[in-house]
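Convert to structure. Protein one:
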Amino acid sequence: MLPTREKAEEILREAEEYNPGPWGNHSRVAAHCAEKIAQGCGDLDADKVYILGLLHDIGRKFGVRHLGHVSDGYSYMRSLGYDEVARVCLTHSFNNLTTDEYIGKFDTTGEELQMIQDALGAIVPDEYDRLIQLCDSLAGAEGVLDIEERMADVKRRYGSYPQKKWDRNLELKRYFEERMGRDIYLVTEKEVFRP
């Protein structure tokens, strides 16, 4: 089940009141990118991906956490009955479905980490998972970013970026560009879109 677009926007606004920061606009940019790419593909639900993009980082509502935002978002969305959103709260950080490639602090309890690993082990990724993973890698707080520049920035901030994760992000970019037959930056209005 999914919230409506309006309800998703309300959930994000409320979450930003609890924990203000650039993550809110990053989520809006991810939602914009997902919607535009879905429209370009023609066979994906553009409203659904907008909602998924908007709420993929909703776990940040609960404070400054790294891996913890994944378990917080997953649990929060499940508690509201939004299982499709809960899924992308989980999958957006793991484009190879393994916590081994997580970039950031492992600031979860043992139970939270086990829950993430168990849930990941039960998922077969679909087009919606892949699209939100890609859009998470394109979205900055100020607008659409070059994917390689964004990954290089993450590498500078955290000291590393797993090569398999880097390569997978570039594969996802190529995959969706091939599906649309268009450059991803043109589709997502990189030069003009601002949240």
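Protein two, convert as well:
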Amino acid sequence: MKRLFKLLLLPLLLTTVVACEETEEAGEFDNWAQRNSEYIDSIAQVARANADGDWKVFLAHGMNDTLQWDNKYYVYCRVLRQGDGTESPSYSDTVLVNYRGRLIPSKTYPDGAVFDESYRGQLDPEVNVPQKLNLSGCVRGWVTAMLHMVKGRTRATGDVWRIYVPAALGYENRNDISAVPENSTLIFDINLVDFYPIGTPVPE
């Protein structure tokens, strides 16, 4: 009788385990908007405190800096490596960058799920082939940070920043970016390699 009870109980236990796994997987993006809002608020607090001196905070490009704005209208940048140059791109320039884009940390992806990248493994500007992008066509948060980054004296010595872009300055509610859920904070590691003013030939 005990053996029969165990045999009857086993399928029920397996069903419960599977159901729990499915619920966990389905819950990866539960309360996503709220979680992203709380995450960017926590980053804003750390960035504004700037305890280690490595943070920069910029109001979104084109916004009136004489007014008070919510945290979601700022870009929070952590300097991972200071470039040895002094020149920054303009809005109409074409930029050459190495980058990796991630979502906020989650249970499945503690470091944040990567949704786009121009290189694999560790950043190595000596080896990585940078992407060519028209800066004016990038999301507002990316533009905001890039306008303050400097290229290096060589292709390997430009700024390397980690930027935190609130949803309002990223893809926000767009549903045509399949790898990025709506209302997502975007985390980018960006290395500025070079830039070229409009009308200047860009090397292939």
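The first strand starts at residue 55 and ends at 59. The longest helix spans residues 2-26.
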